[in-house]
Request: fold
Amino acid sequence: MMDWSDRHCRYLWRLISKEALLYTEMVTTGALLHGNCERFLQFDPIEHPVALQLGGSDPKALAACAKLAERWGYDEINLNCGCPSDRVQNGMIGACLMAHPQRVAACIDAMRSACSIEVTVKHRIGIDDMDDYQGLMDFITPIADTGCSTFIVHARKAWLQGLSPKENREIPPLNYERVYSLKRERPDLTVVMNGGITTIDECQQHLQHLDGVMIGREAYHNPAMLHGVDHGLFDHPDTSLNRLAIAHGYLDYCEQQLSHGSRLNHLSRHILNLFQGQRGARQFRRHISENIHKADADLNVIVRALEFVSHEH
Reply:
């Protein structure tokens, strides 16, 4: 979710679901320790509960970032051991760490010692030729021995050579049963499923076997589906989704952020898919995309785009 689930996107998601745990895009330790820390760590209090997702493999650097995360008020820190892109592999970040479980365990131990908030791990079911259940257990066991109890499992393995990140999200087959087996063998662990989940009904089916589900790109391409989280998974009263009310709530946020120096196109891109599947959605997206970069563009671009979908509400 790099470049996707930034703080503006998360604010929009929170307007749709009050209960979902939100995750930041993956942020490298170098970006926090040697870059613009505030840019990556700033978030609105409305986002709680929110987790900081880190990329790194140096225990000392990760411990320093864990302290920062706690200081900034995050509810959880998540170490990414699942991203397959070449860009992060070169920095010993992401899915390549599955070949080094002892190193990951050292990282988690250092992070847990440095802060009091929960530290979790996100990973694949395997990488390359490490593609069996025992390989998955060999990765998880030393990490669990540190006291880490929550594992978010993308139910696909990753091919680190030969497949692009996009292909790694689509080509390796999903193996939900392997994640179910993990939970059966280690009922003491909190096991969360990720990968290929697009509906609340699918979430409910997985929750018969597991402790949680994580939704990634579907939440971005079709953010309205998060409306079902509160009712379908947390027993809130069933209410109808009012996309226009959400849009106007986000517009109020955009106005505030623009006054603090945020860029209009960075704010507007997250709302493009809010009306996915509704009449007028294509015209809504097109109007914003064609006008938001003009020199005189302001929030009225989005206001006018809403006229294409206002008949739906």
